[in-house]
Design a protein that fits this description.
heterotrimer, A mainly alpha, B alpha+beta, C mainly alpha, B: D-Maltodextrin-Binding Protein, domain 2, Dipeptide-binding Protein, domain 1, Dipeptide-binding Protein, domain 3, 3 domains, 4-stranded antiparallel beta sheet, 15 helices, about 20% strand, C: mainly alpha, about 75% helix, globular
């Protein structure tokens, strides 16, 4: 089954393009320090407040503190993508378990669990952010990941539950039950693996969503803290009045975010198309 | 309601259709309530200042001039003041103004049941009594240097409108939306978070207002405000952000751009209960090691002046430049730390015994601060102090500062044209009694601020605050950063005496007499 | 069907109760409090007065006691309370800010549907052609843009450099009654909102259309005499529009949240602005009112979507 999906995936040009783009982006940010020797945090007092246009010395120019924009974009990319990916893992793991349990047991348990999900959809998420922040009294990147994961698991839960509900009626589940397979094993060994297809697609999109969410947090000042660069806080910096004369500051993080999201989305879309064609 | 002109045509005619006798002012946020008993944001103070008068008003150089009072005198011990009230003043609904209004306003303000937020500032006022319809007597329990400005300057409310309402219910009355005052303007229309317009009060006692209407437009972003000034859609923007001055001048050469020292100052709170921060050597090193001038010249394009103590440059009558300074000298900073026994560890952070110089800097979400904080952080790193930045929202910040749950905190402070700093520096002002979140105590400084508040004679008071500034610059209870300038852009058609311009709310003290030229 | 609706509505009540309790708890347990409103003028408000203020609003009581007061006020007096910031009735503040937001968001929704549905359908019809690939990439790109970044770029391009549209505000100064002026001011924010919403609608519509077409190809292969175009127009379209209705129902809650960035950047203070400021100022009554409003809309949206499905697809039975 996997090889068939892989074959179908690689015969779609857009999916391949997405996959290749994702690889290139990830490689660039990981290899960042080797691609650009400038330190992303080196502040230059002499040019503070006067961003420099791109030059041979600084390929993408400098920002308001004289820091090299390319170096920051690469290290910021590491941070943003890592945040996006890890938060997605948190959301997917928790959401899958939750949704599978709700879908598998059905009945009143399912009703209660999904009502809780509905409730969480309407919350003022900002309170969640500051409560977690205050309770841990730290502002590490890990907290941001936790927060973003906490905000996005509900969608995955709904998805998995819907899949599991439709799977329940299938023959192989009846067979497993008839053989006396207990609920935990049923969920873990049979339901979840078969429900994974839409989850994988949702996961690739979730990476992008979380990167966008981090930019939103940074806009309010509550994202990744200085001096660590992230695409979100680079964007926040770029929107200051003093930075408006520096288009390289505004365009760099924005274009990188868009490109990354398109890449992940094409990848996810390709996986979906490859899997869907396989499903009966 | 149909507009027959094209889209482009509509905008051109918008300018011509603007009323030339209306002053249009741009603001970045809206007022909350126009009831002086409960207002607690800057824009509320601004708006209600147009509607209400105090017994005194602000004059040139922050002196106190007659407003609803024509004269006032005190006994030699400065504890008993007699105020003569102006006759012939009526409220905007026609009812005459008398001493009853003054007495009612003060009794209500001082009643805890009302919930007046600034009640604690006036606890030295023992009683307020009427002596006939045009004279009021204030009896104080202590002398207070702020009485004539803040006490006598407090807005007076109409007793006849409000006296039937129990004090505890004043908070939810509609007076804040439909205020009645004695001032030069009345509220015409208020669309929350969008605009507020005030028209000339026909019953005003002060003569004719040359500015017939004032409209405040709430415009949240800087670019839009710039556009409005450049296009001539607005007459005044009193909030030009740092580094936007030059761009504005370049875009419209005829705009009057004014920059004057303001009464605010920015500094870093230091928590004296944290090991290391209570050591003067560490604080001195932080001051020498922090290149504040580069931040001011670069990030803020010169829109700030370096602070030297807690009295801002803008308080011309009080500011003393002859205090200890801390020019940027990282080598000196490192020497101080070395001599005090703080040695560099392998991780580049200094330690002495089990005191490690690593601290968190709390900051609020103010625009541009991440860069300022990153610069501070880098400077500290180079002298061996590790700083982690922690941006939080304002409510959390205040909570943590009051609880002593912080290391360092960046804050803006001031806005009062007086050097009084009792609540910040007094030894008896540790939270919850006051705002001495640093929990800093120097008896000599505490004595200075207490005495300064009770001294009314300017030369004597000046000497006390000179001493305070000298000691404060020496002791570094907070890390002084810089004093922002008050920057405004004014359309060329607006005329008033630029030589006597005062910052903030005082800018508008005689707005009714400004002259407006043609559009 | 009616029993289904009745059950859902009844079931919504404990849900709303749960939401309100958890919301109030989160606010009560998080750091900072409404007294910070006064702290902006900190050096002037004395701690005595701060303590009195906290007491007068009942904020010195534990959060569950405050919650019961709030609930009692809502249930027995039908009142959403008074804002801590300016002591005005919360309902008044909400009603003031609703028109701006609803105007902007409904225009954006209409524009999004009008653009996305045809594109999605055509992309499905022309599956795997260049048109499909290009629209896919463009759709993802538009979804990937941070909305405030896009807004700033739109402002810089169309307002500052080209001068075609105003850069902010709901009206030009002095032009409040003028609908054409209002429209001009709406163009850029609505464009920004539309662009970022397009992607999910296009993809959703395309996906639904593809599914329906998959079934139809089998059917038409067996039938005779019906032209392709008629089949598509009459049958496929109707079934493919179903998910769109669902998305419409689920978009209802979006009408009242998340528009903050646009409202801030374009200076059109609406529900998003009110909400975010209420949260920062710890204005509990306003935050609770907005939370409950969003919750009601979520439930309503879900219910409408499910009803639509039940009506249109006879295979679905709810009982």
């Amino acid at each position: 089954m996997i090889s068939r999906i892989a074959f179908r995936f690689s015969s779609r040009r857009s999916a391949l393009a997405g996959g290749v783009a994702v690889l290139i982006i990830i490689l660039s940010v990981v290899l960042g320090p080797y691609l650009d020797p400038h330190s992303p945090n080196a502040i230059d007092h002499h040019i503070m407040g006067y961003p420099q246009a791109p030059s041979a010395e600084h390929l993408l120019g400098t920002d308001l503190l004289g820091r090299d924009v390319l170096a920051r974009a690469l290290s910021g990319g590491r941070v943003s993508i890592a945040i996006g990916f890890t938060a997605m893992l948190v959301a997917v793991v928790f959401g899958t378990l939750y949704g599978a349990i709700a879908g598998a047991f059905g009945g009143p348990l399912d009703a209660v669990m999904m009502r809780i999900v509905d409730a969480l959809f309407s919350f003022p998420t900002f309170f969640l952010i500051i409560t977690v922040e205050a309770l841990t009294n730290q502002f590490a990147v890990g907290i941001i990941v936790l927060i973003l994961g906490l905000l996005s698991w509900m969608g995955v839960a709904r998805l998995v539950r819907a899949e599991v509900l439709s799977l329940r009626g299938r023959d192989f589940v009846e067979a497993a039950r008839a053989l006396g397979v207990g609920p935990a094993r049923l969920i873990a060994r049979h339901l979840i693996p078969n429900a994974l297809a839409p989850v994988i697609v949702a996961a690739t999109l979730a990476i992008g969503d979380n990167i966008l969410a981090e930019t939103g947090l940074s806009y309010l000042g509550l994202g990744v803290q200085p001096p660590t660069a992230s695409w979100g806080n680079m964007l926040q910096d770029a929107l200051l009045p003093a930075a408006r004369e520096a288009p390289w500051m505004v365009l760099t993080p924005g274009i990188l975010i868009v490109a990354t999201l398109v890449a992940f989305a094409l990848l996810g879309d390709g996986i979906r198309a490859a899997i869907d064609a396989d499903a009966a | 309601m149909l507009c027959a002109c094209s889209l482009a045509g509509c905008s051109a005619s918008a300018k011509q259709s603007r009323d030339p006798n209306t002053l249009v002012v741009l603001e970045i946020a809206d007022a909350d309530t126009l009831n002086p008993l409960f207002a607690n944001n800057y824009y509320s103070f601004l708006y209600y200042g147009l509607i209400f008068d105090g017994l005194t008003n602000t004059g040139d150089n922050f002196t106190n001039v007659p407003d609803l009072a024509t004269s006032w005198k005190s006994t030699p011990d400065k504890l008993h003041w007699t105020v003569e009230l102006r006759r012939g003043v009526t409220w905007s609904d026609g009812v005459p103004f008398t001493s009853d209004d003054v007495v009612w306003t003060w009794h209500t303000q001082m009643d805890p049941a009302t919930g007046f937020p600034y009640r604690g500032q006036f606890t030295y006022i023992k009683s307020v009594t009427a002596q006939g319809p045009y004279r009021v007597r204030f009896d104080l329990s202590n002398k207070n240097a702020l009485f004539e400005s803040q006490g006598l300057g407090a807005p007076i409310l109409p007793a006849h409108v409000l006296e039937k309402i129990p004090h505890a219910e004043l908070r939810t009355s509609t007076f804040g939306e439909h205020p009645i005052g004695t001032g030069p303007y009345v509220l015409e229309r208020w669309r929350h978070d969008q605009d507020a317009s005030f028209k000339a009060n026909p019953r005003w006692w002060g003569g004719t207002q040359t500015v017939r209407r004032i409209v405040f437009e709430v415009v949240l972003n800087d670019q839009a405000r710039n556009d409005a000034m450049v296009d001539g859609d607005a007459d005044l923007d009193d909030n030009i952000p740092p580094s936007a001055f030059d761009a504005l001048k370049a875009a419209h050469a005829k705009l009057q751009l004014i920059r004057i020292p303001d009464t605010y100052t920015e500094f870093v709170y230091v928590n004296f209960r944290r090991p290391g921060l209570d050591d003067l050597a560490v604080r001195q090193a932080m001051m020498y090691g922090w290149d504040r001038q580069a931040i001011v010249d670069g990030l803020y394009r010169g829109d700030f002046a370096l602070a030297t103590s807690l009295v801002p440059n803008g308080l011309r009558l009080w500011y003393d430049p002859r205090v200890k300074r801390y020019p940027y000298d990282p080598k000196r900073a490192r020497d101080i730390l070395e001599r005090a026994g703080y040695r560099l560890g392998a991780d580049g952070v200094r330690r002495r015994g089990n005191v490690r110089l690593t601290y968190t800097l709390d900051d609020t979400q103010a625009s541009g601060h991440p860069d300022m904080d990153a610069a501070f952080q880098a400077d500290m790193r180079s002298i061996g102090i590790a700083i982690t930045i922690h941006t939080i929202d304002f409510a959390t910040y205040i909570d943590q500062a009051q609880d002593g749950n912080f290391d360092l905190g960046m804050i803006e402070w001031g806005g009062v044209p007086d050097p009084d700093q009792t609540t910040l520096l007094g030894c008896d002002q540790f939270p919850p009694n006051g705002n001495n979140d640093m929990r800093f105590c120097d008896p000599a400084i505490s004595r200075d601020v207490d005495l300064g508040l009770k001294t009314l004679d300017y030369p004597a008071r000046r000497k006390i605050y000179d001493d305070m500034q000298r000691r404060v610059a020496q002791d570094i209870p907070v890390l002084y950063f810089a004093d922002p300038y008050f920057q405004i852009a004014i359309s060329p058609r607006v005329h008033f005496d630029l030589k006597t311009v005062l910052p903030d709310l005082a800018l508008y003290r005689d707005v009714q007499h400004w002259r407006l030229g043609r559009l | 069907m009616s029993t289904f609706i009745a059950r859902r509505v009844l079931g919504a009540i404990p849900l709303l109760l749960l939401i309100s309790i958890i919301s109030y708890a989160m606010m009560g347990l998080s750091p900072g409090g409404p007294a910070a409103i006064f702290a902006a003028q900190a050096q002037r408000m004395s701690p005595i007065a701060r303590a009195e203020f906290i007491h007068s609003l009942g904020l010195d009581k534990p959060w569950y006691v405050q919650y019961l007061y709030w609930l009692g006020n809502l249930v027995f007096h039908g009142s959403l309370g008074y804002s801590y910031v300016d002591q005005r009735p919360v309902i008044e503040k909400i009603l003031e800010h609703v028109p701006v937001t609803v105007e902007m968001l409904s225009l954006a929704l209409v524009a999004t549907v009008l653009i996305a549905v045809p594109i999605g359908i055509v992309a499905a019809l022309k599956r795997d052609t260049a048109f499909d690939y290009v629209t896919t990439v463009v759709a993802f790109a538009s979804y990937g843009m941070p909305v405030f970044w896009l807004s700033i770029i739109l402002i810089d391009l169309f307002a500052v450099h080209l001068g075609w549209f105003p850069s902010a505000g709901a009206n030009s100064i002095g032009q409040e009654g003028n609908p054409l002026d209002r429209l001009r001011h709406l163009v850029l924010p609505v464009t920004a909102l539309t662009v970022v919403s397009l992607a999910s609608w296009i993809r959703y519509q395309r996906g639904a259309m593809v599914n329906v077409l998959g079934e139809l190809y089998l059917r038409t292969a067996r039938s005779k005499g019906l032209s392709e175009a008629r089949v598509i127009l009459h049958h496929a379209l109707r079934n493919a529009l179903l998910p769109t209705i669902t998305l419409l129902g689920l978009s209802l809650p979006g009408l009242f949240s998340g528009a903050y960035f646009i409202e801030y950047v374009f200076s059109v203070p609406g529900m998003g602005y009110l909400g975010i400021n209420a949260v920062f100022q710890r204005d509990y009554p306003t935050v609770m009112a907005l939370t409950m409003l969003t919750a009601v809309l979520v439930i309503l949206g879900n219910l409408l979507a499910d009803i639509a499905y039940g009506i249109v697809d006879p295979r679905i039975r709810y009982d």
